[in-house]
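Predict structure. Chain length: 571.
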Amino acid sequence: MAAKNAAIIALFTLVVAGVVAATIIIIQKKNRYDNGINPSQKAIVDLCQNTYYQESCITSLSKATISSDPKDLIRTSFKTAMEELGNVIKRSATLQEASKNPETAKAYQTCQKLLNDSIFDFQKTLERTDSIDISNLSLLMDDIKTWLTGALTYQETCLDCFEDAEADAATKMREFLKLGRELTINGLALANGFSNFLESNDLGAGRRLRAHKMDLINKEGYIGEHWLDHAPRSRRLFHAAPGDIKPHVTVAKDGSGNFMTIGEALKSVPLRCNETYVIYIKAGVYEENVIIDTAMWSVMFVGDGPNATKITGNKSKVGGTETFWTATVGVDGDNFIAKDIGFENSAGATMHQAVALRTSGDKSIFYNCQIDGYQDTVFAHNHRQFFRDCTISGTIDFIFGNARAVFQNCTLLVRKPLENQRACLVTAEGRTTVNETSGIMLQNCRIMPAPEYPVNDPTYKTYLGRPWKPYSRTIIMDSYLDSLVDPEGWAPWNVTSAHLDTCWYAEVNNKGPGANLARRVAWPGIKKITVNEAGAFTPGQYMVGDSWIAGKGIPYDSGLMQSAPITMPTP
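Prediction complete.
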């Protein structure tokens, strides 16, 4: 057994070397490596046969084999990658200053933030591999694939920022990112290949809860909170009534708390801290745009109820703000949780993209929240997200992004769109490659018309979603679909009908007048799966939720809910 374990760890180390080496040339064009592969590197060549960009894979891995100590090489390669990426960020800043086009300048500025966040995901990937325990490999690989997907998502979001910028600027940034994206995609392919190896040989599963408690805090402190370490306190917080909570700070508009605004309260949050930091927000309407920064870990917002405590803003794309920055609340820090609170973007349907809540941080939980907007209400942007017992309203793409997001027992209210729109779309998922871990899962949800939706006017149509990116993935299971859902079910992204062959959409065990599959579109991307196959997309399996959701004390179903009753919303 010891020899077998040693072999697995050796293979794992090789794969991790490839994964991290795959980030080395982020946006770097000038380096050229010797393409000669000696016999001792045959394993690298064999490994790279499973990647999409084999030449880039071989050259990057070959550089990683010049040392006899893989871990030292990984650290050296990583530092080199950070230096190179830092140089690119500086070049982007120079181009931003030189640009005379405001949209282009803003795009460069946003890309700098996103590429820094991409660096952070690479850092977490590297630091996560410091302790290699045979009983933890499945959880470890889940983290690695999540963060590599995250790194790629940040790069893709950077490119999205140039939609309204000057054409030559968009071309320039795409060229900067070309090689980096290729190598990150290769890293995902290698990580996915190793995960498949573990599964096919029934290796590395271990006890998930016990495995998750392994000591991952490294001396540089890059990894966020490990949920089970503070689960008892978190359970008390979720079960407690608002008046019984003992927060670190209180926000109250009437001056009865420590702060009168949420933004001021966030300045008190200790940075990179593993202990849950509770901000109690008393009843009231808080008109402010709030950002939970990347360094703000384990922040918890607790309100007096989803309709009593509301955070509202009105930034929009039409109003001159990039979609990414329109969010009333933007969550970049890992392990954010929110309970009994409302999020709103009040810009209105005429202002088009206007995000109420953007979630980018890893392992975020939203419980009993109200999230209101029109187009792009919830930007489930990145990493792992869990929404339970929430109500979300909107018109077009009102749940979108590239997170691995599960919405469980939520009510999705379709509002009346503009007269010239006439079609509403619930989801728009943004997976760009087949190996990304991302996807939107709706489980035991209700898709219903909002009171103002014209249910008796057949010229208004509502679709379950449309494929925003090539490998868009959405699964709807155990849910209630009301009659407003069009019989075709799904809509193409645009008139070119892009991504219909490569998207991945499935409906399983749904109920209601809109759940009839007889007239659904017959794209190659529409999948017919069984209830048991759908189990792979439940939170316990799909996002290893038992290791970070189950200990929180909120209602949580790890597996299938096909026998669960459909609870109709209160009018």
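Summary: Confidence is low (pLDDT under 50) at residues 22-37, 72-81, 206-231, 563-571.
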